[in-house]
């Protein structure tokens, strides 16, 4: 198989992919960029015209959506218990949580970041940031009522847990840990015991350029 190449920024959505690569034990090349790469990495728009992170290169294929990349890796390079098959009764829950981690939980955090760190001082909007932090908190409070007792679904660790786990990691990193329900923080503490996550975090600390808006 070709060596997978991941374009990554410290603590960004690309961490989901880094974690998945470690869970699967796949060989990969890590290209670390300053955030946001569309402005700070010359030539990056030629690789990913969206200018976003992550970008995964697998042979002639380019992917840019972190949740989709996780599902792709676990199904393309499986079989693995990290995926839930269509025949499994938990398949619908698996897909729902896989996408929820990004579309419902990470999205409001990016708005919070924009209006607290990324915009120039005169364009920052504390009220908008607070509103989106509250939105994130409300959505996560509802999400935990749908989760299984130990993992998101299927009674085991899956790619859906990587998607949800990163949303908690990001919340803790950007300073809105109080918006994460207590049960979700306990869930994250359990996920952090996984050796693959520890390896991904070690690679993130060792290789990554510090996150500075």
Textual characterization of the structure:
The protein has helices at 14-24, 37-40, 44-47, 66-76, 91-118, 126-144, 159-174, 182-191, 195-207; strands at 4-8, 28-32, 55-58, 61-63. The chain has 213 residues and is α+β, with helices and mostly antiparallel strands. It folds into two domains: 4-80 and 199-207, Glutaredoxin; 91-196, Glutathione S-transferase Yfyf (Class Pi), Chain A, domain 2 (Up-down Bundle). It has a four-stranded mixed β-sheet, covered by helices on one side. Helix 5 (91-118) runs antiparallel to helix 6 (126-144) and helix 5 runs parallel beside helix 7 (159-174). The longest helix has 28 residues, at 91-118. It starts with a strand and ends in a 6-residue tail after the last helix. The relative contact order is 0.17. The mean pLDDT is 92.
List the helices and strands and how they pair.
Layout: E1 4-8, H1 14-24, E2 28-32, H2 37-40, H3 44-47, E3 55-58, E4 61-63, H4 66-76, H5 91-118, H6 126-144, H7 159-174, H8 182-191, H9 195-207
Parallel strand pairs: 1-2
Antiparallel strand pairs: 1-3, 3-4
Biggest sheet details: 4 strands, mixed
Q: Which overall shape is indicated by the principal axes computed on the Cα atoms?
A: globular
- Counted beta strands: 4
Class computed from helices, strands and strand pairing: alpha+beta
Strand content: 5-15%
Could you tell me the radius of gyration in angstroms?
17 Å
Query: What string, H for helix and E for strand, traces the elements in order?
Result: EHEHHEEHHHHHH
Number of helical regions: 9
